[in-house]
Amino acid sequence: MPESVYDVVIIGAGPAGIQAAIHASRKKTRVLMLGRIENSALYGAHIENYAFIPGVSDGCDILRTGLEQAKSFGTEISHEDVLKISAQKDGFDLTLETGKSVSTRALIFAMGVAKKKLNVPGEKDFSGRGVSYCVDCDANFYRGATVAVTGDRSAAVDGALTLLDYASKVYLIANKLEVSQELEHKLRASEVEFITNSIQEIQGENAVGSVLLDNGETIETEGVFIELGSKGALELATQVDVQLDMESFKYIATNNKQETNITGIYAAGDIVGPPYQMAKAVGEGCVAGMEAATFARAFKRKLEKA
User: What CATH topology corresponds to 4-114+232-305?
Assistant: First the structure.
């Protein structure tokens, strides 16, 4: 059973997520925002083309200011990553990296789109031929195979655990882990082999055949899953059948109310497509926050009358 029930849950703490939180909270709804501002593309950027803010501003300062605004209106903040989303008849259940479960009537995706690269020899050459950036998307292709996952955050650990249901052998390769104690304990109690090294090269001929580690050791593997960070919007979206754009399949498709094809799910910011500008993200976050809060309040009234 979910431990907490919210009207609106926002995944992502960038400009879109923060603006959505501000507007949803102002509509007197219970709002939870999940994410870290450090993961936003804006965090390390400088802004000089945003109306009403003269000169050059640090993105991290803008995000911190927005975060405090959201808190002042009642938004609850959690730095936990989301591992799973499941649809329920009265909303959505989210499983967080500590194992905690929360439920919400409305959900907003606002996590951006950037997938971090490992930037090692062989990565680009074998992309789509053994190199993958999405366990949830590609695990089924590796039934009975030996696979390696690299990354030190929740996406990598959860991905390695998921692959145990498909692959015959699973390695997790990382110099260290930056996850909750609960998730690390689950990993170490599993059959995943944790290797404290880093990948220096991905090797093979027509497809991935092995990885070279920084200690000179070579590990044979048929697949390398690069999962650097938390689960991205596209990975989570596939869990609840959210439709992607029909041209590139890189973005979540929305209408002018930031609604997706799934009732109660909204999206805003870079995840719905370019241009990748703070102004666009803030505007879409505003719309998504108001629409999600309105939906949640109407749903709540309907349940009370039933």
Answer: FAD/NAD(P)-binding domain (3.50.50)
Cα–Cα distances (Å) from 97 to 100, 190, 206, 265, in that order, read 7, 16, 36, 21
Helix (H) or strand (E) holding 289: helix 278-305
- In CATH terms, are 4-114+232-305 and 131-226 the same topology? yes
Tokens for 19, please give them.
Answer: 């603006």
Mean pLDDT by groups of 10 residues along the chain of 306 residues: 89 97 96 92 82 88 96 96 92 93 97 80 90 83 96 91 96 93 94 96 95 96 88 83 87 96 96 91 98 94 76
Burial class (CB in 10 A: 0-12, 13-18, 19+), 156: buried
Q: Exposure string (b/e) for 60-84, b if CB count within 10 Å is 16 or more?
A: bebbeebbeebeeeebbbbebbbbb
* Extended strands (E) in 110-164: 131-132, 146-150
The CA distances from residue 242 to 30, 52, 237, in Å, are: 24, 35, 5
Half-sphere exposure of 26 (CA within 13 A, CB side): 13
CATH number corresponding to 131-226: 3.50.50.60
Q: CB within 8 A of 45, min separation 6: which ones?
A: 59
Rounded Cα gap, residues 136 and 72, in angstroms: 36
DSSP state, residue 106: E
C-alpha 271/C-alpha 254 separation (Å) is 10
Q: pTM here? A: 0.80
